[in-house]
Structure formats: structure tokens, C-alpha cells
Design brief:
three-stranded parallel beta sheet, 6 helices
């Protein structure tokens, strides 16, 4: 099951997945996100919440790749000022097909091209790191700070502390 919500006043798109997600549901949500984003100006935020996800059909991977398409991420980042931060939440990740690595690398390249300052990851189980550290070495420059936390609370606290500190 998927839900897509847009809060224009907060410039926030929330994508939630729960229980079992079928390929048809993933296809429908990819189309829905495309429709919702047509009238949204650049500079909005996306929160993807997969905490309630129990399983996903392997056939859904193609549609998830459409949602996470690097070209769309590039469009979203079009007017983002250099030095922005990314929070990547992998709390609900059970497994990821190795074929997804290419798409993740494209997303990393799009972020690096727009001069991302830092990437903060939430990965409760380090054994589920699907090669992100290795991909990061090739797709982000040494100036990009990458940190990984086991809890969302620790990650958010770290981001808040950096936001409150003076620029270096």
C-alpha cells in the first residue's frame, strides 16, 4: 500500500509505503508522483517513509526506479543552492536488488553535480548497507561529508547541530 501527500504550504511531498507493495501499486504511485509534481516549483522537500513496508514484489523495482529516476532528481535539484544536505532513510530496507546500484549511482552523480555538502544516512543494520559506502567513494568527491547513524533521532540531531554551527 502506498500513499502520496503534498503539503504546498510546507513545500513537502510525503511518500509512504506500508505492508505489501505490488508492482501495480508501485506503477500507480510513480504516475501519481509525476502528476503531483507537474505544478510544484523547485525547492520542495521529499520524505519517503517505508517504516511499515513488509515486502515488495520484485517486479515493482522498475517502477521504484522511475520514482527515483536521476533525471527527475536533477529536475528537482535544478534551483537548489550549493551546500544543501541530504537525509537518506533506510530504516525499512529489507533488501535491494543489485541492479538498483546503477540507479543509486546516477542519483549520487546528480547530487554531486549540484554540490551536495553532506549525506546523512539512517541504516539500523550495517549489514544491510548495499554498497553505498563503496559507491560513495566513486560518485561523491572528498569534500562531501558522509555519516551513517543507526537511528533517525541521532541523524536528525547531527543535522540540526551542523545547521546551528557557523560555516567552516
Amino acid at each position: 500500500m502506498y500513499a502520496v501527500e503534498l503539503d504546498r504550504s510546507k513545500r513537502l511531498l510525503v511518500i509512504s509505503a506500508a505492508q505489501k507493495v505490488t508492482a501495480e501499486e508501485a506503477k500507480m504511485v510513480a504516475q501519481r508522483i509525476g502528476e503531483v509534481l507537474q505544478d510544484v516549483a523547485p525547492g520542495f522537500r521529499v520524505l519517503a517513509d517505508f517504516r511499515g513496508l513488509q515486502s515488495m514484489d520484485s517486479a515493482a523495482a522498475r517502477h521504484i526506479a522511475e520514482i527515483m529516476d536521476a533525471q527527475r532528481i536533477g529536475e528537482v535539484l535544478q534551483d537548489v543552492a550549493p551546500g544543501f544536505r541530504v537525509l537518506a532513510d533506510f530504516r525499512g530496507l529489507q533488501s535491494m536488488d543489485s541492479a538498483a546500484a546503477r540507479h543509486i549511482a546516477e542519483i549520487m552523480d546528480a547530487l554531486a553535480e549540484k554540490n551536495v555538502a553532506s549525506v546523512t544516512r539512517v541504516m539500523p543494520d550495517p549489514h544491510k548497507d548495499i554498497g553505498l559506502n563503496i559507491l560513495s567513494q566513486f560518485h561523491y568527491g572528498p569534500e562531501v561529508t558522509i555519516t551513517t547513524f543507526e537511528t533517525l533521532a541521532d541523524a536528525v540531531q547531527s543535522i540540526a547541530a551542523k545547521a546551528d554551527s557557523p560555516p567552516s
